[in-house]
Every structure is written in structure tokens, then in C-alpha cells.
Model the fold of this input.
Amino acid sequence: MKSRIADVTRGASKVFTAALLAGTILSTVNAQPAMAQSTVVVAVSPLGADSNLYWTTTGAFILPSLQTLVGQDPETGKYDNSQLAESWEHNEDFSSWTFRLHPEAKFNDDWGPVTSADVVHSFNLHIGDDAKLSGISQFREISVGAVDDHTVQFDLPAPDPNFLFSHAGRGSLAIYSKAQFDAEGIEGYEAAPAGSGPFRYEGRETGQSITFSTIADHWTGASPEFDEIQFRWVSEPSTRMAMLSAGEAHAVTLPRDLQDDAAEAGETVLASSEGAMQTTMLFTGQFMNPEAEENRDARSYAWADVRVREAMNRALDRDAILEALYGEGVRTLPVYTMDPRFPGYSEEIAARFDEAYGYDPERAMELLEEAGYPDNFENPKIPLVVTSLAGNPEFAQMAELVQAYFDIAGIQTEMREQDWATGNTAIRGFSADFVTPMRNAPVRPSALGVQIFFTSQASPHLDVGDPELNKLGADLVSETDPETRDAMLDQMFTRIFDSYAHLPMATVPASVVVNSDLVEGWTFPGTTSSGLSHFELIDLK
Amino acid sequence: MLRYLLQRGASSLFALLIITVIVFSLSQLSGSPVDALLPDDATQEQIDIFIREWGLDQPLWKQYLTFLGNAVQGDFGVSLKWPGESAMGFVLDRMPATLRLGGLAILITLIIALPLGIAAAVYKGSAIDRIAQGFALLGQSMPNFWLGIVLIWIFSVWLGWLPTSGIGSFAHLILPAIAIAWFQISALARLTRSAMLEVLDAEYIKLARVKGVSEWAVVFKHALRNAAVVPLTYFGILAASILTGSVVIESVYSYPGMGWVAIEAIRGRDFPVVQAVIIAYAVIYMLSNLLVDLLYVIVNPRIKHG
Amino acid sequence: MNTSQTDALLDVRNLKVEVTTKAGSFFPVNDHSFSVKSGETLGIVGESGSGKSMTAMSLMRLLPKHAAKIRGGSVKLDGRELLTLSEKEMRKVRGADISMILQDPQTSLNPAFTVGDQIKEALKLHAPGGRKTLRERTIDALRRVKVAAPEHRVNSYPGEMSGGMRQRVVGAIAISCRPKVIIADEPTTSLDVTVQAQYLRLLKELQDETGMAILFITHDFGIVANLCHRVIVMYAGRIVESGPVAKIFAKPAHPYTEALISAVPSLHGQKERLTTIPGQPPAPTDIVVGCPFAPRCQYADARCHSEAPPTVAADQSGDHTTSCWRAVEA
Amino acid sequence: MAEVQISAQRPRRSLWQRSRDFPILPLAVLLIVFIIPAFFAHWIALHDPYVPNLRARLQPPIFFGGTWEYPLGTDRLGRDIYSRIVHGAWYVLAVSFIGILVGVVVGTTLGLIAGYVRGWFDGFVMRLVDISLALPAMLLALALAAAMGASFLSVVIVVGFALWAYFARQVRAEVLLLRNADFVARSRVAGSSHFRILFRHILPNVTNTIVVLATLQVGIAIMLDASLSFLGIGIPRPTPTWGLLVSDGRDFIATDWWIAFFPGLAIMLTVLSVNMIGDWLRDTLDPRLRQV
Done:
């Protein structure tokens, strides 16, 4: 009996060791075949693009196998007909838009030409209940009809001069093949959606990577010089940097400081030709509402006082902060959501920026004293949100720098380290009581952005509570005359600017670092959510 | 012995039940998935649809019972973050990757720590002992993510021997497994050393020598058999800490295992997946403890009569 | 100790063991010479720390590896020098020619193996045989130490046995290969009196049966009187007296022996309050000038404190020696 | 077991002899790296640990091209690494001390009672121990941070949660041995209340165990703090806990290595010294605990 137990022991430990070994060896068997020579690898922080059904994602990354209606010029970011629409027109009040599709456009894998039916079909999918796309709500009110095989018409409930934005950088509508849907159903999309882009969807490892192969004779004539492109989701910046240095990745996104280090090591930093995002610190709560909201009394927070808000702005040495966060040459942003590319841009405000917002700690302290800060305030402490958001690794530093400058001016702070979703919960629940970093990416047309971030129109939880702004915002919705709109936007920006309604930071280009031994160049406008696009233009050595 | 194991099994099940309560309440506490899964500018309408669809408007106890009822059948619902994936299915998909990584880490740990601990005990006070102890102390005082990154730079970037990150070949497993094993090696080597020292001092070791048993057999037959109980008991904790360690290391190496799922799911407020992954962790832990109990009985026959 | 016995089975000459610790080095076995014949029992008596166990372990060459070293002398078994054997050759001697019974039956059996396995292990090493013969010999060994139902007991774990039974098993292991010499290191200290007596009787019977020599290490002169033919008395690493048991009991030559004998319990076996020797033996690392026992000796004089006594004969026969100034003077 | 076993009854070593093995060097290192900075940060820091100096970003340490102004270099906001480490010591000390205290109090109380009253309560506590060991602390931390926001408190809770089970298990095991000891039986006969027996008679007998275990847990607590910072759920910025410093510098390990290296070194030296002192304490106070 004894020897039996000994045998069992020996047996058990052998089985155990064998199992471990077998598991380990099996994993070698599982190994993927060595990658083809001409695979371009792009490593970025995870974008949450874990579905082939684009409308069920938040729209952070549109599969390069799919196309939208409107394209953008890689150099200037101007709308162009490089995607499915050959041309477009709108009626006088911007409430009806007609797109003419490229007649030669066709889906890959022999799913036939791209027609109006595909657009209507895709549109219906995008406004389904499972849609989570950013900005999709406006689409729900739209009716779409095929005028002919290659012409579609969108009828909008309200005028929208910025409708092209939805079809370009915002990417609210990706065109799927109706033929594939009819043949294979939604499962066909889930397995491998056919698109009309210059790449074919090859497969994904959830949370890990997506791979595309290039199309040989693409209808646009685009001919990338590589066979495959693979996007890898890698959350650690240093790991991405290591991938770049080890030659495992052709292009990676990196935080600013690491970009410098990479450049020093001989890699090349490529910036988008246009600003890809605007950043700011936003005050939350309806702090400009003269009658305290029944939800909460924003005015118990120090930033309800305009003098305190000005002091906060004056306390910041933006040149130094922005250089530390984004490097030299980044543009300071006079008003968040205002952008020279879009209507409503005011030169006058931009010119006044230094005078009104320039670094002046003495003035800040005077203002604080005037306001009776901190003694007159119930809550003199300013809670600053420290958070990390994919694509914005600098947000944590931003909060730290702001805190440091506030401290110098005598503004009390409290750091709130929380994840992005937690902040969102508070904002959506109207219980936010902090100052949080925020980004506008892709840079929305000003009329859209200002509504979202400052008025009660698009997202009431971000409303600053100012009656004047809300009135202007409400009027703007129905106004179609471009000049009147310009004037109204100007008024809104002036109002925001003069009442120091936020802590504007910068307009930042998207940038990637490429391995200079492998990549010659790559031009992209930085107009999408991720800032990346035009992968077919990646120029290899 | 069977009764003993059954008893252990039953109490594990009870513990699992409690864990479901904890997991459920924690995931409730951690906020609404709405904010993690819908875009920043989602409308109220979008939010309402979402809430209704996922039953987030039901009373909590009802949500829990529904959850438990389904969980028993292995159904944790559908992932909110990874559309079209069943929560447990998604976790189970990732499990082999983590088990492979954990298995290799355990293997490395055992292969290095046991001989090291034994050698340190047998040659107590010698250079080997001092090296082993130094190694043990070092291993226990280095944050594992730090080690992980350093390993990437040394072996992937400078030496170019191994891939930096990701999953695929066996080579991809080596660095993360070492990074996970490092701390465990030191802990296990330390334990083995002290357990062996204790045993080597015992009279029966002297008796074995007196009988003319070779030193090799003294160490590996007489001493190890008795000392093994200690590292074995530790095995349960080892398994748990390797799983825990994998949460951080999988993130460093962008290795899509359960740890990665756990972090992504919690950040994304993907309740079903969070619940599934924690339960899966707990089950692995408890199974490995049951295995330990079993091995324990085999290695140490005394317990059978105890 | 000039009584070199040519018929000695185990002959130890001038054995010296040095131990090195952080606190310094010392000689727990200092110039020991003694011998034992077949069928003879030699008692080694002394307080704890006197170097008894160290002597035993050095005979087995099982001193702690780094700390203790044999620094000289010779150990001859049947005329074969043990100290120069290779470790491999020595392993063949251990368990086969010289065997040992350790102090504590509670801990000297390996709890993870059956007693049968532990007996068999020694047999396998020194007298290999088939599975069946090994089993028979194992059972036989158990039978010889009077373990009841040995066929069943071979499958028992030590944890399932009483202390006395375990000590018998330890004995069975020791005699299993029929060694010429058995060293018994206080084998009965932890047993109760009745069991102790039984065990000692058993040892005697086994000796009669096999003619083996026994080195019996103890601190109890009572046992020595019952069991041993000759005795050596140790104090602080030195042999202070040696001779036949009868002579030493009749006329102890060293004051320390005298004190030890007076500490023996009465013949009825009742443990009365014993005469104790005042004071403590010197710490092993202390540098001793003169007779090490002098500080505790009621007869000590100035010379005892300043000069170490030589070893001299205590009577005319020459088989009784001591190292005490009083004997020198006599 | 430093000395050779001379006989079965090894002479007891005096306290003086034992104290000769006292690890002086680790204690000195601990004082210099950890204790003194923790209590005297304001005196020995060179700069304000919170104030960025954007003109002195990423300065290398002295001997690597840097200056005495910033002996260990600066981080990416131009803050002095040395001063940040020095100021961080206090928080590291506080987190590990309070976290372990939480673990000790909870674990010891439950372990004491469980081992003493046995029965269902014992079973219950041991299940809790199982549960707590089966729930990876890191996941709990993530959920907790999401629920209540990361704060000093949440970190302390996580550390306490991660450690209490070890105390409970060890203390219970010892109480099981002690509850039948003579002195317990005597005081029971003498009519002592259970409370009195537990806390006046049994507790003092497990104190050594607790002290030793607690010392050995300091390293684990510091590591845990570092891992939490890595996941972004540690003590919030700008508090320069060492975990945050290492975690913040991790992107720069290959280039501006000093940002993560020196805080890492501080962690290493501290954990190393604490562990060595812990080992010594264990060997001296409670050799039975070798296996923890």
C-alpha cells in the first residue's frame, strides 16, 4: 500500500509536470506563422474598436476597409471626393443634402458596385437601437432616400450647414455592402465586413490587433506599397516605444516626452497637417446660471465667481505649460471649440487673448482678493480631475501643472484621481463639482462644438447655465444664413471668452512616431477621432 | 480522504456564493456602464434605450437573483463592451492564454526556486546560500511592472532576442512569464530554504545518514518529502498571486489574457464580463487549492489518518 | 590509556574534533582514546555538552559539515582505519558495520515513510535482495526487536505507533544489517521507566544473540551499572576516567565520577532528589587552564586550577585510568 | 541555527548573544532612506516637491551630466526627484503602516475569536479567509477605485484587505494551540471571562507572531501601493508616493532612466532592509514562523 502511494505521488507529480510542459509546448504549436515581409505595423493605445459593426462602437476608429461618403485632403483637411461621394449639394437652408456616388466605386471581394441602396441600408443599421456612435442621435431624425442608383438624398429636420462633418472626420456613417448583408446577414459583417476602401479586412484578435490586406487594383487607384497593415492595441507607451525601437512596429503613437526621446534616438515624428484636437480644462456645473439650479448650487463653488475664473486663467503660464505638455510650436487656443477652419472664428478674440488671458500672477492675486477668496467661499478648494484617456496621456500632467500654478497664485486645489468614466458619470448625473480636462477630437465645426460643451442644446449636462449662451444656442439651431450664424457664433465665443467660462489650452496636431529605417513619410490631416487616417499613404523606405 | 475533499469542495462552493454577492455589489458600486460605453455626447434617449436593454432599471435584488440564476448555468450575460460576445465565453476564450502564461510562470518558478531553495538549505552559509538569499530579497523588492519594462528593453530592444509584447509564439511568453515568476521565485525559494533547513535538522535525517543513505537520497528523498508540504501549501497562494500578478504584467506586455480582460472590463464598466472574470479567477484559485489538498494528502500520508 | 587491546573491535586513538563557531573554536572531543571488543558494552557517561554525542558522530563521520572537523587521531574498526576512507566507502560502513540508535524515537523516524520502508532502505543499501526477501528480512528485523504482528506493522507510519514501539523500530533499523558495533545515543531518555527497562533488556538480548559491541551513551549511571561492561566518563570534552564498571562503582577515582554515581537513583527505581553538583561546566569556548572540573570540585587545590592533570592509572591492573591530581598523588 | 548543535540540549543563547546578530546595516539603510525622510522631509528636501520648474525638465542626475542643484535629476515637469522621494517617504510609511494596521486589527481579532470559540464562527472566518485570498486584490482595488474614487483611504483599504487573511490564519492557528495550554485552562478555572482570557492571556502570546508577520508584510504593502499607482488607482497626484514616481517614470526607463530608477531604488532598499530586519525578528522572537 505504501508503494502504491509512492507510485501515485510519482505519477501525480509526473502528470502535473507533463501537463505544464505540454501546455507550454502547445502554445508553441499555436504560434502564428511568421509575418509577411511587407506588413506595416501600427501600434496605438487601445481605441475600443472591438467590433466589426462600426455603429456599435463609439466611433473612435473606423476600419480602413470601410469608407464614408466624404473624404478629406491629407494636406489641408478640406472636404474632398476621395471617398464614396463624387459630388454633393445642399438646398438653401442646409436641410436637404444630396450626394452623388462615384459610379466606379465597388465593394471588395466581388460584392458589386456601391449604390444608393447600400447607403440607405447602412444608414438604417447606424440608427438602430444598438448604435453607440458619437453624434448618431442627430441622424435619427433624418430621412434618407435613393434618388437613383448613385444618388442619395438626406432630408434633415433642421438646417445643418456642418452636415459634411458627419460624413467625413466624425465618421457617423460607414458604408457596408447590402449585397453581403442579403447573402450572409449580420453574421457576415461580424465575420468579415466587405468594404470599399483600399484595404480588405483579414481578421482580428480581440483586444489585440486588427489586420488588413491591401487591394490590388482599387477603384480609387490607391496602391499602398505594402501587402498588409496591422493595428496593434498596446496600452503601455513604453512598450510601444520598445516596439518601435526593436523594429516591430513601423509607426506608434507616443506621449510628448517619449516623442522627444524617440526623435533623439533617430526616429521620425510626424504630425498631422491640421490640428487634430483641442484641449481645455472645463468647469462643471451650471456655474453661470444666475438662479441656482434646483439640481445643485454651482455657485457654492469658487468658479461661480467670474473674478475667480479670471484669476485662474491669469494664474496659468500657458506658454510654459503647453510647451511641457505638447512641445514647441503648439497653438494656444483662445476659445475651446473655436477653430480657424470653421465658420465663427474670430480674429479679434484671438488677438485679445494675451491681454485678457496672459500670464499674470499678480493680477490673479488681486482678483482673488477682490473676490474675497478664499474666505467668502463655502468651498474654496478647486477639485482638479486627474485622469487618463486613450489618446490623451498628457491629461494627468495637465492637471498637475495647473495645480502647481494655482498654488503659486494662492488658489487652493484638491486632486481627484479618477477614470474617465467616473467623471462622465458625475457630469451626466449633474453632480459634477470639479474642473476636468476635456478634448474636442476630431475638432468639430465650431457651431457643433460650442453647443455641446457650453449650451443646453446637445448635451445639457455640459451646459454652463448661462441664459445668454443658451438663448444664442437655441437660435443658432434654426438659423441658416451663414452671415447671421457667423455673427451669432462670434457673440457666443465672445461671451465665453469674456466671462472666462473655461481654461482653454491648445489646438494640437495628431502625431505618430515612425521608425526612420522603415518609413519615409506619411501625410494625414488629423481630422478623425483617432487623428489617424490615409493609411494608404504610408510611404516605406 | 474522499470525505475530506468533498468537505473542502463544499466549503469552496459556499465561498464562491459569497464571492458572487461581493462581485455583484462591487460592480454595482463602481458606477453605471452607461458612461463607459456610450460616447461623451450621448443623448438621454440613447441612454434610456441602453438602460432598458440591459435591465439596469430593475431593483438590485432582482438583478442579483437573475444574475445568480444565470451564473449557475454559466451564463453571465452578454458583454457590453465587446458586442456579440457572451461574457463567460469571452473570459474563457482568454483563459488559455492566461493559463499558458501562468503555467509557464509556475514552471519557471518551480524549476528555479525549488533547486535554489534546496541548495541554499543544503549548503547553508555557503556562497550559493548567500546568492540565493540575495536573489530572494531582490526579487521581493522590485515592482513587477518595472521589472517587466526593464526586461523588454534588455531582451527585446537591446539584445533583440525576444518580441516586446503581444501574443503568438512561445517566445512571446518568455518575458512576461519571467516578470511574473520573479517575485514568486524569491518567495518560494525562501520558503523552501527554511522548510528544508527545518527538516534537515531533524533526527530522522540523522538516522538516514546513519543508515548509510547517500547525501543525495537524504536530501531528495527524506528531507524533500517532508519539506515539500510547505511549498505545496504555498502553491494555492502562488497560483492566486500569479493570477493577480498577471493583471499588471499582461497590461505591460499587452498580452490579451484574463488580466487584460479584467482591467478593460472594469474600466469599461462591463458588468457581465467583470463578474465572469472575477468568478473565473476565484474558481481557478479554488480548484488549484483543491489540487493542493489532494497533493497534500498524497505527499503527506499522515493527514489521511488525522 | 596505554592499555592497547589487540583484540579490540573498535579502537579509537587520540581522536580530536574541532568545532568552529562565530564565538570561536574549541575541541569538544579532545584526545579521546578508547576501545571496545565484540560482545562488549562500553558506556560513555557525561553531562550534556560534555562531548558524548560529538564523539559518537565523529565515529560515524557525520559531524556538521562546515563547523566541525576531525583534527587527528585514528578510528579502527576490525583493524581498518575509518578516518581515511572515502565518503563512499564510509557510507558502506554506516548502517552495515557501525550502526546507531538516536535519542528521540518521536522524531528519529521519517513521518512520510512507512516503518517497513525505512528498515528496508538500510537493507537495500547494504544487503540487496529481491523484493520478497527484503520484505521478509524487514519483518524479521521487526520481529527481532519484539514488535507484535510485524507483517502488519511494516505498513504503518511512525505517527501511528507509540513511543516505545517507535524506539524498537529504530532499534530494528540499527540491527537490520547485523552491524558489528552499535552506538546507542541516550536511546531511552524520552521513554518512561518501564518501557526503558524493557528496551534495555531487549538490547542486551540482541547483543547476546549477535555478539555485537555496544557504545552506550548516557548521562545516567544507573543504566551504566545495569548494562555496561566498561565505562568512560567525560567532562568538558575530555575523558576524565575510564575502567570496568564494577571498579568504577566500587572506587571512583575522579571526583566528577564520584558525584555522578551519587546522583544515581536508589535501586528501587524511585527518582529521589539527587545529589547535584554545584556550578556549571565551562562553556565550550572558554579557555580552560588547569583541570576543567576544578571550579566545581570540592577537593580542588591551587594546582588543580593552574595545571591540567595527566591521565594516570587508578590502580595496579592498568584497566582503570583517570586524570586527576589526586590520583597522581596517590 | 548559526551555531553547531553540540548536544540535544542546546544552551540557551543570551539576549546579548542574539542581539549581536542584529542587522545594523539594514537598520541604517532604513533610517537613511525611509524613516528620516518620512519625518524630516521638510528639512532635508532641496526643492518643493510639487512645484514644476519647466525650464529644468528632465535634468540628468549628478555624475551623469547633471548638477548639484538636482542631485538625482528632475522629472518631466522639472521637479526634483530627490525632493520628491524624500517627501514621498511619509506617504509610503503612512500607507504601509495604516494598511498593515488595518490588516492586523481585523485579521487578529477575527483569528483570535475564530480560534477560541471554534464552531460555526471559525468555519465562517476561515471561509472569509478563503474568499479574500481568492479575490485578487488588484481587481478589488480597481472596482473599489471605480466605486469610491482612488484616494489614500481606498489604498489603505486595499492593503488591509490584501493582508488581513494572512494574520487571521496565522493567529487562529496559534490560538488553536494555545487555547488548551495550562495557563488558559487555569484562568478559565479561575473564572476569567472569555474576553479577558482572549485579550489578556492569549493575545500577548501571539504578539510576537503578529509583529514578525507585520514586518514581513511591509514589503508587500509597498509593492501593492506601487502596483496600484501603475494602474492609476493609487494615492492621487501630485502626492509623490514612490509607487507613483516609479509608475510615472516607467515610460522613460530606456531614456530618462533616473525618473523611475531612484524611486525604484528607494523602494528596493526599504523593502530589502525591512525584510532583513523582519527575518532577524522572526528568527529571534519566533522561530516557528520560519515558514511565513
User: Anything to note?
Assistant: The CA atoms of residues 223 and 284 of chain D lie 26 Å apart. The first helix of chain D runs from residue 15 to 20.
